């Protein structure tokens, strides 16, 4: 089915429309063999609050962006190669329902669909695309992924020292290895994580000690297991500002 659509005029036209919606700031999306599989609005759990994002699934990449005008204009384009993607379902809890984790070596995050059927369709299509890509390339699935950041709202005190309370002066920071919300004194060190950045990034003291001693596996936080065990923020507070996880803290 995908192969038949690859060079069709309808597929080329659909991809061109997506390109135009992102404008000049977006990267070109039309390449030989690329097929637009589907699209839709998902709620992405960002650092400060859940936010509506427009997602486009292609047979080789996943693209998403901020919604400026629905079906007409998007910005802050993000492109994720599907070969590097693994997904895990998240248990329903409170307002956050029909969700799953999208995990890659450089960035990982949670998204939520409007219905269980929509969630199932998204996950099935993503898994099929990833499976087809890996089959064609002969590569194996990635076993390394960036931590999913714990939302700011889940931590009133530092998740490492359990003492420092967060205030407008005592700011929240995120460890790039475990994703925990930590205070400044607990995250003063930096470490090179090549899959995430070419420069050393902020990590907490706990992860720094493990990484420095070579115990990297013990430092990896399994957010897919622990994600549903912590309190979640409300889905009702959705805005169209930039992705918070892209900040330097």
TrEMBL record:
It comes from the Eukaryota. GO terms for molecular function: phosphatidylinositol binding; zinc ion binding. This is Pleckstrin homology domain-containing family F member 2. InterPro entries: PH-like_dom_sf, PH_domain, PH_domain-containing_F, PH_Phafin, PLEKHF2_FYVE, Znf_FYVE, Znf_FYVE-rel, Znf_FYVE_PHD. The keyword NAD does not apply. Its main location: membrane. CDD domains: FYVE_PKHF2, PH_Phafin2-like. The keyword Transport applies. It is found in: Early endosome membrane; Endoplasmic reticulum. Residues 221-237 have a biased composition (Low complexity). May play a role in early endosome fusion upstream of RAB5, hence regulating receptor trafficking and fluid-phase transport. Enhances cellular sensitivity to TNF-induced apoptosis. PROSITE patterns: PH_DOMAIN (PS50003), ZF_FYVE (PS50178). Residues 238-249 have a biased composition (Acidic residues). One of its GO terms (biological process) is endosome organization. Pfam families: FYVE, PH. Residues 152-212 form the FYVE-type domain.
